[in-house]
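User: Please fill in residues for this 946-position structure.
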């Protein structure tokens, strides 16, 4: 950034009282958080899956042993500072956390936040512990910039302004470019610019805001955000009464038609393709700002006036329903524009005397005055779920207090891209605390995402978070003073605090899980009203629900922001290289919460591993299906379920919620109209929709790209056909004989192996010779043996024959397989335990008794891992290993197809269709939704601003 305004130049804040006393939450006196975890060295090598090139490599980085491969890769490549390969390059998570935390502590001491040096040390240790253990994370700019020699920008979200002058318009281009260069995003409202239907002072017609959008779009497409390979993040808003509103609504629809025509003509129109730059308006999210007056006119079917920008006079009357219909038709066709509810937004505005809220950041969660910014932080909700499945409201509140303190301290030393933004941010001190992993929390506690119980718990947690944040803000006001704009806006600010408290009091309590959280929130809001009356508030706003894309991966969250789970089966990278698919850990926890015994839990998990959904899972009650509904897949959450969840959280947020309401491809324009209408009635502040397959300008997956090729292959003169060759076992071969009983039917199984190449034959003998069952088992074992010798992998048999149901079935005498659906089901579970690597059978949901006990004790089935000295090999000590002569059995197998590199691609493979998500321009894999943006599981890149 070449133009900044520095926080350090301002000096220390006013100190009307003594500093804060800081409580210990996680740490103990005399012990540093780093000394309480096991550290290990890892190698980070990240590749582009499209061409195999190495994007990033740094070996020997130091992280706690419980951090996932993904979290380590993303933090190392995204947040470590210094040139790779030099001594200045950070190589340990300790260095990264210390760089940030020690900067915060020093600033807190310099500006009078702490009551004593001991309090400052407790603050440092508690903040370190919470970051180290993934309890919360600051937004990305903090990790990029704090403690470095470059400008210490801490905000991810910016709102700009533009007036009806050429000077202001050119300033808009410049300021937006500086923000994009710094790795953040910006939004603004263009409604002050006069319409194309109005005259210039010289007598000619004005160009209108849509024409100036074209120049800003080209600029954004040129300046890659943060110097990375992704496009810039920006939001453009236009008021519904602007005379050019119809042109604004139609901008992206026309461009989508152009993309379609050019692609059909053979041009490369994928995002990032060579020819996509010829298409306009692709670098911004568009939103229409609607008023209550307009929405009432839509309901009544009356006319609505479009007003001149310079005089405010109505220059054209339009049919409100017709204009509303055009908005819905455009969103149906290309997902833009979104909608923002102006009167609702400003009804909750704490600072109306300083200006209306006219715009938002690119993801629509930050809403405040023009030329301002907001720094974000998000808490990992699963860290507050106790072993007894209750939510720890007390600890949650204490962490919120800690994080709000840290976020406010950061404004004291932060740098900003423009002088106006710096002045307003210091004057109003806008903060955006939020959370991630809500979807995982609801599932783990047995709540459907689209349920009254799920919404009650989400509302209670959100209310407690914001109430606690404002309470801490009032406490800070007593120590270092209220925000500069508070005196002018005192009445309005206290009115909004009362609105939050009233909404909390009126909220419905549903069960024993959410009720204690509501009670804690009620106490917090009482304190807010009391302390605010006495002290005022340090911050004009406190909370938002951001996408938590990259930082969600950093915290190993299963779900981002307020979103439900993407799918029940996920893609997981392994420490020693390779990957596997796993059923979400929250599924098992939810099944236990719902009262299912261990045997049924295992059978359900195995079914999910194979099918990717719960429909038809053995023993699972149909009334429990909804608990496992996800954003995509067999039982996708209904669109209004997303809207209702937003409405449950919205009354307890300072800002709004970054979230897209997904609709199926067959959704109608009327469906979108209803979502926009209900979003207004339910009190949400902003909404965006996305109908499956509505956009054509998305990168194609490798599979889909192959399917779209229309060229016929060149003639082949000679066809060479390859057939498998049978590999017979030697005369002498190692084997295991097992006696078994399934539902009272007894039998024996002998499994023989190649000396160095895995299982080769199976013999099955039932107790009653000459019976039909015994004969069929003989024939079946011969068929399986021949298949194994022709190269059919054992895991293929296991995946096909486990869960097959027929009599005899029931209890067995095998401690590792207590229940079997049939003899065939038992046989292949036993063969998997004896002959498949842990990763392969774990992905299929097959575990030994010892591994199941380990999961109950530690939350993980995985056995101990020993790393070889040459570092790239992972050796596993299997709980149920074969006899000594069997050790050189099957090699380590890859469970997932080679072309699957993310959870979205895994979902594509399961559903047999292409998911509507862009490819990451850095590493080439399918991204996954994160609020109204997308995040790459492979490298952490996002399409948004956080």
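Assistant: Residues filled in for all 946 positions:
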């Amino acid at each position: 950034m070449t133009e900044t305004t520095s926080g350090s130049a301002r000096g220390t804040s006013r100190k009307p009282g003594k500093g804060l006393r800081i409580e210990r939450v996680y740490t103990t006196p005399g012990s540093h958080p780093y000394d309480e975890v096991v550290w290990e060295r890892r190698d980070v090598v990240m590749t582009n899956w499209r061409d195999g090139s190495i994007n990033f490599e740094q070996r020997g980085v130091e992280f706690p042993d419980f951090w996932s491969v993904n979290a380590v890769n993303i933090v190392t490549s995204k947040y470590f500072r210094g040139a790779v390969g030099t001594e200045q390059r950070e190589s340990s998570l300790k260095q990264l956390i210390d760089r940030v935390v020690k900067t915060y502590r020093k600033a807190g001491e310099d500006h009078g936040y702490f009551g004593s040096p001991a309090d400052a040390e407790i603050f440092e240790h508690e903040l370190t512990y919470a970051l180290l253990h993934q309890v919360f994370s600051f937004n990305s700019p903090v990790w990029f910039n704090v403690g470095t020699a470059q400008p210490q920008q801490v905000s991810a979200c910016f709102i700009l302004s533009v007036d009806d002058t050429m000077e202001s318009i050119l300033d808009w281009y410049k300021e937006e470019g500086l923000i994009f260069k710094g790795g953040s995003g910006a939004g603004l409202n263009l409604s002050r610019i006069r319409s194309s239907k109005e005259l210039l002072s010289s007598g000619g017609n004005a160009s209108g805001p849509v024409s100036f959008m074209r120049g800003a779009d080209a600029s954004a497409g040129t300046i890659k955000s943060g110097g990375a390979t992704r496009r810039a993040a920006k939001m453009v808003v236009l008021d519904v009464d602007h005379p050019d509103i119809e042109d604004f609504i139609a901008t992206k629809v026309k461009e989508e038609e152009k993309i379609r025509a050019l692609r059909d003509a053979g041009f490369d129109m994928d995002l990032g393709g060579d020819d996509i730059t010829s298409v306009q308006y692709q670098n911004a999210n568009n939103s229409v700002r609607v008023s209550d007056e307009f929405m009432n006119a839509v309901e009544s079917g009356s006319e609505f006036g479009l007003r001149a920008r310079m005089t405010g006079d109505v220059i054209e009357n339009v049919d409100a329903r017709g204009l509303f219909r055009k908005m819905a038709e455009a969103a149906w066709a290309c997902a833009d524009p979104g909608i923002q509810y102006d009167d609702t937004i400003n009804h909750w505005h704490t600072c109306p005397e300083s200006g209306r809220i006219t715009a938002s950041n690119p993801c629509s969660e930050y809403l405040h005055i023009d030329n301002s910014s907001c720094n974000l932080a998000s808490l990992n909700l699963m860290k507050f779920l106790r072993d007894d499945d209750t939510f720890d409201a007390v600890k949650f509140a204490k962490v919120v207090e800690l994080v709000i303190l840290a976020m406010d301290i950061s404004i004291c030393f932060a740098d900003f891209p423009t002088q106006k933004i710096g002045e307003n941010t210091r004057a109003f001190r806008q903060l955006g605390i939020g959370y991630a992993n809500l979807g995982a929390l609801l599932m783990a506690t047995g709540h459907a995402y689209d349920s009254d119980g799920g919404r009650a718990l989400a509302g209670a947690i959100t209310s407690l978070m914001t109430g606690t944040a404002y309470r801490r803000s009032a406490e800070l006001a007593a120590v270092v003073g209220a925000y500069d704009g508070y005196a002018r806006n005192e009445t309005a600010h206290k009115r909004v605090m009362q609105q939050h408290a009233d909404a909390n009091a009126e909220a419905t309590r549903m069960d024993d899980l959410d009720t204690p959280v509501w009670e804690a929130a009620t106490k917090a809001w009482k304190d807010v009203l009391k302390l605010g009356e006495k002290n005022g508030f340090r911050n004009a706003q406190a909370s938002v629900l951001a996408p938590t894309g990259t930082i969600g991966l950093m915290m190993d969250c299963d779900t981002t922001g307020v979103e439900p789970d993407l799918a029940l089966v996920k893609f997981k990278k392994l420490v020693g290289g390779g990957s596997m698919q796993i059923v979400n850990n929250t599924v098992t926890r939810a099944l236990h919460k719902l009262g299912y015994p261990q045997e049924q839990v295992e059978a359900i998990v195995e079914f999910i591993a194979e099918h990717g959904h719960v429909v038809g899972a053995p023993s699972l009650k149909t009334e429990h299906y909804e608990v496992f509904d996800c954003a995509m897949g067999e039982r996708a959450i209904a669109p209004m379920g997303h809207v209702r969840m937003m409405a449950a959280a919205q009354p307890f947020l300072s800002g709004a919620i970054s979230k897209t309401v997904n609709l199926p491809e067959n959704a109608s324009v009327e469906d979108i109209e209803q979502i926009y209408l209900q979003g207004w009635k339910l009190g949400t502040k902003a909404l965006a929709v996305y109908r499956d397959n509505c956009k054509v300008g998305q990168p194609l997956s490798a599979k889909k790209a192959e399917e779209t090729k229309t060229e016929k292959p060149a003639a082949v003169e000679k066809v060479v056909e390859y057939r498998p060759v049978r590999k017979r076992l030697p005369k002498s071969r190692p084997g295991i004989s097992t006696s078994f009983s399934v539902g009272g039917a007894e039998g024996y199984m002998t499994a023989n192996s190649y000396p160095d190449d895995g299982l080769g034959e199976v013999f099955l003998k039932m107790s009653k010779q000459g019976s039909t069952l015994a004969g069929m088992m003989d024939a079946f074992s011969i068929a399986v043996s021949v298949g194994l010798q022709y190269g059919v992998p054992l895991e293929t048999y296991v995946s096909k024959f486990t869960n097959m149901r027929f009599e005899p079935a029931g209890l067995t005498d095998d401690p590792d397989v207590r229940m079997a659906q049939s003899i065939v089901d038992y046989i292949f579970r036993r063969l998997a335990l004896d002959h498949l690597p842990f990763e392969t059978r774990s992905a299929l949901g097959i575990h030994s008794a010892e591994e199941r006990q380990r999961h109950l004790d530690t939350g993980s089935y995985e056995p101990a891992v020993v790393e070889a000295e040459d570092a790239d090999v992972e050796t596993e000590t299997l709980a149920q290993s074969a006899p000594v002569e069997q050790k050189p059995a099957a090699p380590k197998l890859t469970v997932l197809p080679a072309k699957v590199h993310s959870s979205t691609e895994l979902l594509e493979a399961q559903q047999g269709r292409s998911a509507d998500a862009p490819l990451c321009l850095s590493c080439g894999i399918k991204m996954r939704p994160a609020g109204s943006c997308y995040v790459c599981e492979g490298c952490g890149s996002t399409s948004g601003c956080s």
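For context: Residues 5-154+374-551 form one domain.
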